Amino acid sequence: MSTTSELYAVADFCLIPIGTGTSSVAEEIAECQRVLEKSGLKYKLHGYGTNLEGPWSQVSQTIHDCHAAVHAKGAARIATDIRIGTRIDRPDILPGEGNDHKVQRVQEILAKDKA
Amino acid sequence: MSTTSELYAVADFCLIPIGTGTSSVAEEIAECQRVLEKSGLKYKLHGYGTNLEGPWSQVSQTIHDCHAAVHAKGAARIATDIRIGTRIDRPDILPGEGNDHKVQRVQEILAKDKA
Amino acid sequence: MSTTSELYAVADFCLIPIGTGTSSVAEEIAECQRVLEKSGLKYKLHGYGTNLEGPWSQVSQTIHDCHAAVHAKGAARIATDIRIGTRIDRPDILPGEGNDHKVQRVQEILAKDKA
Amino acid sequence: MSTTSELYAVADFCLIPIGTGTSSVAEEIAECQRVLEKSGLKYKLHGYGTNLEGPWSQVSQTIHDCHAAVHAKGAARIATDIRIGTRIDRPDILPGEGNDHKVQRVQEILAKDKA
């Protein structure tokens, strides 16, 4: 496989500003949501991070731009945890449907428990 | 602070079975949801993990029990990524509301952008 | 498998104090190393976290105690990323040798490249 | 801050192949080390991941290429956990010294305990 053929990435990230002097991180996470909105990528905020997916380099660039935006708001240092997955066996999963597809599959299995 | 006083943990985890011979992980994640349901803790599945919160030792024990249940289903090896947070400045945030509170705060800030 | 039979955990964690007003985290990480030293568990600091292994509940309790100690030093909020793995297929790997064993296996494979 | 000015990233990643039919991951991690060696970036394997640092896009591209290489070896699906940090307050930390600098700072503090 050539490394020039870009993989599609289904991801999730949790960004933490360091040294801001306040224990609240909501302003910084809101700023990330603005960057995500502009990115054109599919994303969804949850209680401990944000689901995000798209071509690998766009996912990476968008998280980079979140760092840049949060630095611009005053955070001297930032630490982010990213979970990122790729697969080559399911070309049938449509772009933008990676994370939703996973939730749906689990819910289908659990629905049978109740049936 | 005494280390015997247990901290309340707001967490998120993503469990991955290894060596199962299939690229699908939905059955294993569904099994974890069953363990979570029995735990009595508040939890919520999303596209790349599950939000979970409660007293630190119960959160930890519940994730342990997910490992045990997924091993029992045949996975020889499991790797999990856990994000876990504690804070001592907001005793007003009610148990079970930690992750929801974070999402709500960000949404309040973003709502002002549109106002 | 009974969930009362405790799993052995091979782990790694990265703790981040929030709202300390300084972008340095070295004092807090040093405090964690002191907690780890007292824990009796095998651990090893690296550039972006600390390897740690032992019975699951002891690993969890030790990371909890790192949070408690860092809160005691003044951090109002802490976020930690934990990678934790269990396996039931290699009872021959000795306690305390889980992380070292993984590095060794990779180095053995790479050594053959040069041979 | 312009998002076109690229941030320097100090990172760590742990890659897990899924559905390979074996609980061993050493061959895949060895393959990643070969990719890292070719990348020209500074990296260091530890028990639960690999430290890596460089310009953000190169760090990201290198982890992408690890995925591509592990897919090429037969893994249908891969999940990776990345810890990635940036800071704008320490331009004096030399490229390639980010992770080592962190360990050194902690060791200096602990050395005073013994003094």
UniProtKB/TrEMBL annotation, chains A, B, C, D:
Which residues belong to the signal peptide in this entry?
none
Q: Which InterPro entries match?
A: MTH1187/YkoF-like (IPR029756), Thiamine_BP (IPR002767), UPF0045_domain (IPR051614)
Q: Which domain of life is it from?
A: Eukaryota
| Gene3D superfamilies (UniProt xref) | 3.30.70.930
Per UniProt, residues of the Thiamine-binding protein domain are 11-91
May I have one GO cellular component term?
A: cytosol
Q: Which Pfam families match?
A: Thiamine_BP
Family to which this protein belongs: Belongs to the UPF0045 family.
PANTHER family given in the database record: UPF0045 PROTEIN ECM15 (PTHR33777)
Name used for this protein in its record: Thiamine-binding protein domain-containing protein
Which organism's genome codes for this protein?
Ephemerocybe angulata
